[in-house]
Amino acid sequence: MQEQQLRVGLIGAGRMGADHALRIRERISGARLAVVADPDLDRAQQVAGSCGARGTAEAHEVIDDSTVDAVVIASPGSVHEPLLLAAIERGLPVLCEKPLTPDAKSSLRVVEAEEARGKHLVQVGFMRRFDAEFAELKRLLDVGDLGAPLMLHCVHRNASTPPGFTSEMMIYDSVVHEFDTARWLLGSEIEAVTVRAPRSSSGSPEGLLDPQLVTFETSSGALVDVEIFVNCGFGYQVRCEAVGERGTALVGADGGPLVHRSGGWGGTISDDFRDRFGDAFDREFQRWADAAHQGRTDPNAASTWDGYAAAAACEAGVQAQSTGTRAEVDLRERPDFYAL
Amino acid sequence: MQEQQLRVGLIGAGRMGADHALRIRERISGARLAVVADPDLDRAQQVAGSCGARGTAEAHEVIDDSTVDAVVIASPGSVHEPLLLAAIERGLPVLCEKPLTPDAKSSLRVVEAEEARGKHLVQVGFMRRFDAEFAELKRLLDVGDLGAPLMLHCVHRNASTPPGFTSEMMIYDSVVHEFDTARWLLGSEIEAVTVRAPRSSSGSPEGLLDPQLVTFETSSGALVDVEIFVNCGFGYQVRCEAVGERGTALVGADGGPLVHRSGGWGGTISDDFRDRFGDAFDREFQRWADAAHQGRTDPNAASTWDGYAAAAACEAGVQAQSTGTRAEVDLRERPDFYAL
Amino acid sequence: MQEQQLRVGLIGAGRMGADHALRIRERISGARLAVVADPDLDRAQQVAGSCGARGTAEAHEVIDDSTVDAVVIASPGSVHEPLLLAAIERGLPVLCEKPLTPDAKSSLRVVEAEEARGKHLVQVGFMRRFDAEFAELKRLLDVGDLGAPLMLHCVHRNASTPPGFTSEMMIYDSVVHEFDTARWLLGSEIEAVTVRAPRSSSGSPEGLLDPQLVTFETSSGALVDVEIFVNCGFGYQVRCEAVGERGTALVGADGGPLVHRSGGWGGTISDDFRDRFGDAFDREFQRWADAAHQGRTDPNAASTWDGYAAAAACEAGVQAQSTGTRAEVDLRERPDFYAL
Amino acid sequence: MQEQQLRVGLIGAGRMGADHALRIRERISGARLAVVADPDLDRAQQVAGSCGARGTAEAHEVIDDSTVDAVVIASPGSVHEPLLLAAIERGLPVLCEKPLTPDAKSSLRVVEAEEARGKHLVQVGFMRRFDAEFAELKRLLDVGDLGAPLMLHCVHRNASTPPGFTSEMMIYDSVVHEFDTARWLLGSEIEAVTVRAPRSSSGSPEGLLDPQLVTFETSSGALVDVEIFVNCGFGYQVRCEAVGERGTALVGADGGPLVHRSGGWGGTISDDFRDRFGDAFDREFQRWADAAHQGRTDPNAASTWDGYAAAAACEAGVQAQSTGTRAEVDLRERPDFYAL
């Protein structure tokens, strides 16, 4: 049975796509790359060549290729919608890097297409759901040892941002992870978002509101606060403390070798999300490939609905950021097809 | 010189007053109790007797007593004002348990009286300023290694509340410590307060908004958030993470013996603030007595102005809590007499 | 290229073998099980069946099978020698669970056979070399930031032992990991071993010397001490602190979610080595399969020589244990074929 | 009652003596310095002057002074014996810095003198018994939650040594603390000592065996190992892990603000024992003064017997160090007068 490997088509051969190609080639069982698409054909062929796959400049060719069993989308969010709709039409399992699409309206169209198709096909790449620590936190909350969750305190820090990074992208690219994490941990939807900012760091680019304090209310009544600081200067940190009625649990404390030497004691800080969440990405891909083999999606993974709900929360977040007031999340009623 | 011990009058012989009597008797050098006042004369005499002092039911008798060199006020906040004004008039050094007085208006009268007297006499009992970890955090911020501070994330948890504890008291009795801590650490005033609450814990008394998320803006542009949770069920926790432009520092992580046994690894949690801040109280009293010997107040301690500023922030906090909106802090301009 | 999967023959379908079968099927890329051997044919067929492989009762059939590209040996150590010699003769890459063989003499015969064959074929399953934390510790020592290593303090604890576990097995099955870890971290051979024991725990089976304190001297001059405690009752712990001339580094501190609740703060303890070192096993297997594809062994993995050196140290350890005195390790001179 | 302060005579005005003078003046209640003796009269007068005491060059004058209620001995160990004997004869409470005397024979004479006097007068300055963490560790062992103790793993590191520090002093001055700590925590005597050393650190002075691994056996059957490393270069560290039949407990993990900044996360390391054990010294002195007021010694403190037993263990330690073999501790039978 395992002899038939899942033949994967990869759309997008940038940094993320290339990482995923390596992941499929070296760390995942039961799957291999068959074709890689990128508008930059050289890049497509380079990534493809390292994996014994073929390269193409046409993304839709991947979806139309009859030798492709499943698709990984790692191209920019702006081109996701038509690809997702085509894959759904062909009944192909998809692992789509976040965001599902850039806005809630287009995400909803994908939701409706999948619902109409009547089969769960799309998984969104919120990899924290596959991180061992976050998974243990979810387990702790689910078994109820901490009592009902009342608050989440989140910290999300990056060393620095690439040129052109905007305050809005801090919501769409960064806080979107906390939106999904909170929805998943709490099992509830986000209802409203507020954004506050202290004076910006002198280490952040001119004009960027950095850091920000994002708070959001959820349908369960739990409140979430997020420090997002994308030019903290010292590394990548993701921390989440759940406060329950009877106890609290924190993930994201620093690990690794504990060193003592002149200057003090301590350890190193992750450079970036690839370093911190490498194992989570591996697990995400393995479980996706395993599920795709069986013609289903992983129930723990983020669904199309989750991608849509995250997009809706981001829209409210950006609105809250620009107006300085609380913004409500506008979300369609959840269809039965998507159980939480 | 040390042969002349500072003769201290203690007003209030309740739990806090009795603790302070013990502190002066056993752990502080250069001071001794001369007289103890409490409306409950038995209680006054019991505490006084254990220290070789005399007891009285009349608080003002302590201040009028010519054998008293300095006064500790540990009675309820509602009776502080006239005692403070009398002590200032007599030129007596005072260590006044928080709050200075119950509201900003009366606190301001004490400020004005002290300013008129032209001599710093009153020290307010914000003991965290004398905690070794908080002091080290302040030092880190002051030397500038972390860059300018942008945010403080605070957590303040109590196991449970006594009967009759109200949502307003969570601001006046609990968050007041974070108001002072933030002002002290940041060297800036609080300008506005916002209060948000998730659904309340089922472990908290009916009607109490518990926990709450209090955020406040400061004149330095730094933003502060505080989780106040007074029925968390498991113990006493005070944590503060300062986020600077170039680094962060956290105090209040758990210490003590690290135990491994069946069920897991870990340690114990402080029972209450006396346990957690016992050393800080000792240091606060010792430094107050040392300064009083020299006819001055400790520059690190909270001044009358600090007590007034905390009262003003509390008023804004309670207003923000009841209206659900941001409330600005109404603070007189700081006179030169009180340098930050 | 990756299309040709490495066809793996597995010898031994007990708990460890079944784990490795699952590993190859689900978490490793580029390899698949072709045949599984176990004297218990039902067990062999059950494990084989779950992986689309065939089962057999004859271990040597695996090695003689022309469709097998590489072999995993997970059978008892007592039967390893002839299997290893046969695999070497056929030029097959082997991943052999520790021990290489049960004693230094037979291990040396395997060393000599491989040396005579002139090709590195055998890798011994010391999985700590693939653990992220231990690898980082090795990197720290190799770059020299801590100065030359002077001591290692090791702790190795198991919750409990299966029936029949003996004091000698504490050396052969448990401390053997520290022998390999020390040789690898320090890049030097073990020269002498001493074993001391306090009174045994009442929680350990009658007659078992448990815990023990094993110290050993290395050719680099560094000294290693190991607490081995196989009935500690509370879980599985592996800790190692390297003490260098200019600093120290500790791996194996407890991680996972940090929980606060009634009773204290803390986290969970690993149940067993599969839990603690699961990722290390995955990495070990992936790198072995990758190297086998290229007809070589992984340079970081334990070689036949390392297996032999560990066996020699174990013999000295058991001798030291029985005599109560220091026992020297009797090791052949290392041939050039096996660079450290 | 508190009005009568304990009038303390201090012998020795070096670094340690001056520290203790400051301690008595500023942080201890109910005691004051009356006279300070030091062969260097200037130094004596300087320390005395800062405390309103008188200075003298004659140590015995302190003991003969009828205005002295109790004596602190902080002079070199070589001159302790006659001072202790004189104080015992006069019935004066003594707090004697370790060592009691430089060797077991002279220590035994002090034991016999005190026993003959029939009154506990002497307390030896093993301050760890007053450290909050060590006290909690003792409590954990005493209540039995961890089961009977089987092993102690100790680490004792100093940044560097003063000129002239010898391998023997590593036992007499440093490991002597672990001898007392182990006796106190385990409630049992030390029976034999073994000393092993790796090659010495290039950061240690020529000729010094540094670090060393000292192991000792106790009458309870528990085994203790100590890493003593007095030129570790990075700071002062004292760590102790107790391994019980059902659990373990570790004290001495690093605390203080947890900082994240460029270069990593971590905290600072104590500079020296004054920094790490300052609070313990304060508590030791306060309890000694309180007990002296009542004409007794503190039952938690180290007694004359404890000083003698430590000296005997040191002698065995130095013998083990020089011979490279196990050395038995030669200890008189404990008289009833000194209950453990």
Task: Summarize the SSE layout with pairings.
The structure is a homotetramer of 340-residue chains.
Chain A lengths: L5 E6 L3 H12 L4 E7 L3 H9 L4 E3 L2 H6 L5 E4 L6 H11 L3 E3 L7 H14 L4 E3 L7 H12 L5 E9 L9 H20 L3 E7 L15 E7 L4 E7 L7 E8 L2 E5 L6 E4 L2 E4 L5 H21 L8 E2 H20 L3 E2 L12
Parallel strand pairs in A: 1-2, 1-4, 2-3, 4-5, 5-6, 7-10
Antiparallel strand pairs in A: 6-15, 7-11, 8-9, 8-16, 9-10, 11-12, 13-14
Helix pairs in contact in A: 4-5, 5-9, 7-9
Enzyme class (chains A, B, C, D): oxidoreductase
Family (chains A, B, C, D): Belongs to the Gfo/Idh/MocA family.
Organism (chains A, B, C, D): Saccharopolyspora rhizosphaerae
State the CATH architecture of the largest domain in chain A: 2-Layer Sandwich
Radius of gyration of chain A in whole Å, from Cα? 20 Å
Side-by-side strand order of the widest sheet of chain A: 3-2-1-4-5-6-15
| Helix-residue proportion of chain A | 25-40%
Please give the oligomerization state of what you see: homotetramer
CATH topology of the largest domain in chain A: Dihydrodipicolinate Reductase, domain 2
The CATH class of the largest domain in chain A is identified as Alpha Beta
Overall outline of chain A:
globular
Largest sheet of chain A: 7 strands, mixed
Work out the number of β strands of chain A. 16
- The CATH homologous superfamily of the largest domain in chain A is termed Dihydrodipicolinate Reductase, domain 2
Distance between the termini of chain A: 32 Å
- How many helices of chain A? The count is 9
Mean pLDDT of chain A: 95
Strand content of chain A: 15-25%
What's the order of the H and E elements of chain A? Answer: EHEHEHEHEHEHEHEEEEEEEHEHE
